[in-house]
Amino acid sequence: MHEVWARLVRCVNGAELWQCLQALLLPARRMLVWSLVLVGAIALLSPVPALALDYNRENLVDADFSGRDLTDSSFTKANLRNANLSHTQLQGVSFFAANLEDANLEAANLTNATLDSARLVEANLKNAILEGAFAFNARFEGAIIDGADFTDVLLREDMQDKLCAVAQGTNPVTGRNTRDTLNCF
User: Fold this and answer.
1) Domains, the chain, ranges and CATH?
2) What is the C-alpha separation between 86 and 135, in angstroms, rounded?
3) Residue 63 and residue 105: Cα distance in Å, rounded?
4) What residues does 59 pair with on adjacent strands?
5) Are 123 and 145 in contact (CB under 8 A)?
């Protein structure tokens, strides 16, 4: 700061004021430019917060949502037949009465999702995490559940029995055995 005042005094005593101000402001401009570059870089590199989206009653046959963060979104009564939802963050998502027949949900995180009355017939749930999901009236006939984590999932007893008949594997993220998470005996 002392250096800036000394320069200002020299400028006022000798040079034209405009040239003096330019010379003084040049370092400040450089600092401002670098500050803006730094702020921009931080903004670009920071993860974008997930925005809950409303896909209720949408026809999303063959849609590709793979790898996206759809936390807290809603797909109530949506048609997601053959949709790709693999490696997708679906925490808290509502799939109430949605058609997920033949959908790819491999390695999807469905923690605390609502799957009640959803149709997951022939769906791929390999290594999916369904912890705490509500799936009481969901249909899973023919679904691939190898390595899926069903910890604390509310299922009908008849559907639980059907899933236990094909359950195998261990979830690579949670380390839980599929049969154990379904309480298969």
Assistant:
1) 51-184 (2.160.20.80)
2) 19
3) 12
4) 79
5) no
